[in-house]
Amino acid sequence: MTAAFSDMAGFRAALAAQPEADDVALAAARARNGQLTKPPGALGRLEELAIWYAGWRGTERPAVTHPQIIVFAGNHGVAAQGVSAFPAEVTAQMVLNFQHGGAAINQLAKTFGATLDVHALSLDHPTADFTTAPAMTEAELVAALSTGWAAVDPEADVLVVGEMGIGNTTSAAALAAALVGGDAAEWTGRGTGVDDAGLEIKTRVVRDGVALHAQKGDGLEMLRRLGGRELAAMAGAIARARSLRLPVLLDGFICTAAALTLEKTQAGALDHCAASHVSAEHAHAPMLAALGKTPLMSLDLRLGEGSGAALAIGVLKGAVACLSGMATFAEAGVSDA
Ligand SMILES: O=C(O)c1ccc[n+]([C@@H]2O[C@H](COP(=O)([O-])O)[C@@H](O)[C@H]2O)c1
Ligand SMILES: Cc1cc2nc[nH]c2cc1C
């Protein structure tokens, strides 16, 4: 579907008119969960995960059969300042690797039965360096949001959005500092593995960007000023998923920063999203805390590509299989407590 908006105001209006979970399905799934053959609460957080999923899918006994993973790639003007351990060419090189099936996300998509789509966004035209100008114009932001919106398969039953973009942990850190607050140093980490000198440059870049752009608008405006095309595309896809009542598994630091811009534009915009894992990038944990999301896993991943969220498809499938497939105490003739 082509996007339901043609400018930032239209996107904000779309965010304000999004559907909620189905309360009837939610209550029915909760009641069913209470009757299944296990001690109450014994499946731990899988229980809430499955009930949450049922509410968004609008059915008491859902199934996860069509996971979609989308990886968006973008390049960043700030990369020229030496904020990454890798050169910017790696973004395009990794897109080829995704297309040839050689990346981690290819293996994880196959393992968890997900389709994988890759969208490279104007890689030959990096965003503007946000220490001197907004990263994107309104038209560029809207184009990237629209790419993300249109990339979502309406037939999917869970969505993972991942990214590839050398320099994008600098963008994510700047977005967090601008939208949550605190000093640049608290949000700036080593990304792909910058050394101490690189970390110093990166922290200064984040601080300069925040000084230039913070307090100049809402989450969407910060996404335009401090974000990147792949972050905007992830935001557009997450918003489109909400319009389809399609649950989203959030990935790592960059994906969560993109999601944060939606929440800071429209409170509640991420109710259809669950946090898959907490990244080894140290600022991911406080970012999730600021969103009130508890990660399902902690595996010291710091890859991106949607990798942690792809793993969480397996967790979600397990949770939903139990909710929908287990017998009740009455059905199995097992004595209740
Ligand atoms: O997902 C994460 O938490 C994560 C943490 C650190 C790095 N990354 C990946 O590494 C790239 C960005 O790192 P950098 O150092 O170039 O800013 C980008 O392609 C991300 O997918 C991803
Ligand atoms: C090789 C490489 C692969 C990646 N995948 C996601 N981000 C990445 C960054 C690098 C540098």
TrEMBL record:
GO terms for molecular function: nicotinate-nucleotide-dimethylbenzimidazole phosphoribosyltransferase activity. It catalyses: 5,6-dimethylbenzimidazole + nicotinate beta-D-ribonucleotide = alpha-ribazole 5'-phosphate + nicotinate + H(+). Pathway: Nucleoside biosynthesis; alpha-ribazole biosynthesis; alpha-ribazole from 5,6-dimethylbenzimidazole: step 1/2. The active site is at 305 (proton acceptor). Pfam families: DBI_PRT. InterPro entries: Nict_dMeBzImd_PRibTrfase (IPR003200), Nict_dMeBzImd_PRibTrfase_bact (IPR017846), Nict_dMeBzImd_PRibTrfase_N (IPR023195), Nict_dMeBzImd_PRibTrfase_sf (IPR036087). It comes from the Bacteria. Gene3D superfamilies: 1.10.1610.10, 3.40.50.10210. Its EC number is 2.4.2.21. HAMAP family: CobT. Belongs to the CobT family. Catalyzes the synthesis of alpha-ribazole-5'-phosphate from nicotinate mononucleotide (NAMN) and 5,6-dimethylbenzimidazole (DMB). This is Nicotinate-nucleotide--dimethylbenzimidazole phosphoribosyltransferase. It comes from Roseobacter sinensis.
